[in-house]
Specification:
mainly alpha; two-stranded antiparallel ribbon; about 120 residues; about 65% helix; single chain
């Protein structure tokens, strides 16, 4: 699932790191009930990021011309900025696939709704 969502905002990463540290500290003094703790952790699922909020953040950060859409250049810039192993060519090809699947208004760019639809579909898969 994360392969389709090549970024996390810094706040999410910080919270995840703090949660992991807290879980490690909680487990240090316990010994007898380790099996029960593992079961509880499996039942707790991480809450998925809100696609609407993610789309809004993407536009706020990378919509350089203020059009309310991410065009090809802005999208490639976003993917490269997230430093997840994307190249300009791979981001360009991925953008083509997103346009085919999510550019409902055929604008050649992805608006907030189209970005949200993409992010939602990535979470569902």
């Amino acid at each position: 699932m994360e392969s389709c969502l090549p970024w996390k905002n810094e706040a999410e990463e910080e919270v995840e790191g703090e949660e992991e540290e807290a879980e490690e500290e909680e487990g240090e003094g316990e010994g007898e009930d380790e099996g029960e703790d593992d079961e509880d952790e499996e039942e707790e699922e991480e809450e998925e990021p809100d696609p609407n909020q993610q789309a809004k953040e993407m536009l706020m950060e990378f919509d350089a011309d203020g059009s309310g859409e991410l065009d090809r250049e802005e999208f490639i810039e976003m993917m490269l900025a997230k430093d997840q192993g994307w190249t300009e060519d791979s981001a360009d090809q991925f953008f083509d696939q997103l346009l085919l699947n999510f550019d409902r208004d055929d604008s050649g760019a992805l608006n907030k709704k189209e970005l949200r639809d993409w992010l939602s579909s990535a979470q569902d898969s």
